[in-house]
Amino acid sequence: MTATRRTILLTGASGVVGNALLQHLGHHKVVCLVHNNAPEGATEHVRGDLTAPGLGLDPQDRHRLAAEVDTIIHCAAVTDFTAGADATRDLNVVGTERVLEFATESGAITHYVSTAFVARTDLTRSDVGEGMADPSDYLETKRAAEHVVATAGLPTTIIRPSIVIGDSTTGAITKFQGLHTLIRAVLKNTLPLVPLQPDAHIDFVPQDVLATAITSLVDSGTSFGEYWITAGQNALTTSTMIELCVEVGSRLGLEAQPPRLVNTDMVDRLIRPVFINPLPRAVRRRFDDMIAMTALFANASYFPSTLGDVPGCAPLSTDLLADAFTRGVEHLMRAQRLGQFAEEAA
Asked: How confident is the model over 161-176, as a mean pLDDT?
């Protein structure tokens, strides 16, 4: 059955999720709301500002779009944990309010892309030390934005992906994420320890899987519900991911040594005061940033997963996740000229 062709207003088109969506929504008319330059692959775009009244659109553009748009996919968000509370709230909460104002005017269905990490309410650290990364600002604003969406009285869905990695087949991704930083550190032997248990589950979803799920919700005309696009109980463990990093690195010319896995209590009681505090400030800051990030996974329960409830989608298997992760490591090494790829570039 052919999906009804829709006119979609897409925010955040230059981000990882938005860019992946552009590759899946070709059977619809997609108008990208951009602040600066249009992303590659965008066939139509309008300039605006998510935090401004009327989305900062030229009145003529706004009137035209309100008459044409029947679907909104709202991906734009501040995801940088160092951005600060004010900038994060402006885009993540105020921007969502502005989008819903436009949805009221246009009568469009709104698909709001949130994060599965809204479920991790008790795992952010109140003390980030000398680090600059504070996940609490991001998570608080995503929870607030979800409340705005849920209470708007409009046709809306809330989509909660876990960490988004590259394409499951090629590993390619528009912009490397925090997880890639850790992978590179393992490959380069610059990460002697990771404050996680070996059996801690690191939930991620390939970008094409997420884009397929969102596209399916659009195609089916779904206008309500909450969707957890996650690996759930099949998420890979810390030890499995490190083993895969080491295996890929070795196969492609890097002899990586697996870092030691320790619990956070040991970090606070022994490792930081004895080994970290004497180091230069820049090193201490990077260490505290890592602690703030990994706290979201330490002692965490599984995310819910409702990927199988999305029309045409199925739960992610451990084998598929392991293959996708492997492709991501290979892509990272190729893009950053690590191992044998450094020799090929020389």
From this structure: 96
